[in-house]
């Protein structure tokens, strides 16, 4: 994720999670001595996968889904809602009721209560505050309406049928492992970190993953500053970092939205002796990586398609389908998405699902 608390605390699929693929599984029947061989060029026979996987993308019974998320006041949150709408539009059996984005906890609670009163079939919610929305989410579950919790967990796991999460610790690990490969054998390398807001668990998780990964190749964080997930905060924190560290070999910036300011500060300081890794996976960061002309060489994905994943999962739940590529009959309780590293070599694979900062 790209995260901001007061502006819509973000955390972190790119595209639709692979676990949501609904490709039918083909079962090939073996011949026995009592079974005649099939005629030459006869069409292959297929069998449905356990869990109703076969044909899961085919339109089914109408599903009405209520959707609520924080205000789209920056790129990652805007993409969450946009991607949810896009997936709903691609499924003719889905009617999506989208509540106005809000950073007012009481208003978001009221929105969920409206969905309950309207007797929607399912609710997909990225709560502004997971703990504050727990009671009303539990109320929906008690009313028989499955809740899909996106990105920010409720304080009671029984308040959601499914939780879709990014991997903040995994982001740090991916960034650290990439830097280790790029600085291989350089044990005296100077590594810097530009974090988000230190009081947030997501920032703490990212930093811990980064530290743990670096330690495995004999490196550590030599210089660290915290910003606030904004362009302005990123520029100010980076300016301070560059003044304090006359030599740097690699920087990990937690968030591509604040990365706009980070890169501005680097340009203003006329520094280019290091490589930089971003976080969240914005389109502008990926285009910069694609050009290969600046210090930004990679970014670590925190999927902005989690809301879209929630819509797909809600549809499957209501229609009593499983995930087409899994033998499991039911949709899982928790889906945690991967944090891949995007470089110039694979950027084309991810750019189409990236968000604009």
From TrEMBL:
<comment type="similarity">
    <text>Belongs to the bacterial solute-binding protein 2 family.</text>
</comment>
<feature type="region of interest" description="Disordered">
    <location>
        <begin position="36"/>
        <end position="65"/>
    </location>
</feature>
<feature type="compositionally biased region" description="Low complexity">
    <location>
        <begin position="36"/>
        <end position="49"/>
    </location>
</feature>
<dbReference type="InterPro" id="IPR028082">
    <property type="entry name" value="Peripla_BP_I"/>
</dbReference>
<keyword id="KW-0732">Signal</keyword>
<protein>
    <submittedName>
        <fullName>Substrate-binding domain-containing protein</fullName>
    </submittedName>
</protein>
<feature type="domain" description="Periplasmic binding protein">
    <location>
        <begin position="65"/>
        <end position="321"/>
    </location>
</feature>
<dbReference type="InterPro" id="IPR025997">
    <property type="entry name" value="SBP_2_dom"/>
</dbReference>
<feature type="signal peptide">
    <location>
        <begin position="1"/>
        <end position="29"/>
    </location>
</feature>
<dbReference type="InterPro" id="IPR006311">
    <property type="entry name" value="TAT_signal"/>
</dbReference>
<dbReference type="Pfam" id="PF13407">
    <property type="entry name" value="Peripla_BP_4"/>
</dbReference>
């Amino acid at each position: 994720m790209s995260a901001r608390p007061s502006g819509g605390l973000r955390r972190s699929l790119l595209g639709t999670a692979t676990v949501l693929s609904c490709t039918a599984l083909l079962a090939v029947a073996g011949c026995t001595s009592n079974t005649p061989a099939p005629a030459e060029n006869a069409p292959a026979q297929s069998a449905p996968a356990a869990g109703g996987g076969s044909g899961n993308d085919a339109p089914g019974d109408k599903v009405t889904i209520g959707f609520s998320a924080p205000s789209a006041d920056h790129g990652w949150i805007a993409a969450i809602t946009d991607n949810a709408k896009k997936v709903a539009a691609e499924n003719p059996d889905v009617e999506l009721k989208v509540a106005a984005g809000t950073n007012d906890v009481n208003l978001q609670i009221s929105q969920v209560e409206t969905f309950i009163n309207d007797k929607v079939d399912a609710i997909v919610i990225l709560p502004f505050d997971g703990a504050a929305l727990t009671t009303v989410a539990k109320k929906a579950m008690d009313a028989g309406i499955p809740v899909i919790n996106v990105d920010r967990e409720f304080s009671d796991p029984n308040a959601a049928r499914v939780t879709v999460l990014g991997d903040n610790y995994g982001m740090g690990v991916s960034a650290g492992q990439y830097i280790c490969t790029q600085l291989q054998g350089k044990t005296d390398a100077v590594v810097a970190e530009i974090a988000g807001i230190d009081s947030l668990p997501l920032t703490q998780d990212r930093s811990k993953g980064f530290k743990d990964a670096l330690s495995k190749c004999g490196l550590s964080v030599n210089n660290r500053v915290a910003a606030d997930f904004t362009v302005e905060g990123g520029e100010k924190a980076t300016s301070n970092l560059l003044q304090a560290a006359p030599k740097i070999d690699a920087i990990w910036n937690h968030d591509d939205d604040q990365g706009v300011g980070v890169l501005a500060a680097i340009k203003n300081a006329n520094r280019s002796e290091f490589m930089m890794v971003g976080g969240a996976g914005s389109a502008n960061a990926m285009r910069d990586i694609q050009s290969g002309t600046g210090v930004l060489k990679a970014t670590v994905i925190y999927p902005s398609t989690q809301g879209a994943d929630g819509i797909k999962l809600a549809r499957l739940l209501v229609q009593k389908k499983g995930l087409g590529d899994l033998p499991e009959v039911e949709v899982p309780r928790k889906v945690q998405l991967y944090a891949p590293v995007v470089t110039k070599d694979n950027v084309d694979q991810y750019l189409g699902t990236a968000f604009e900062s």
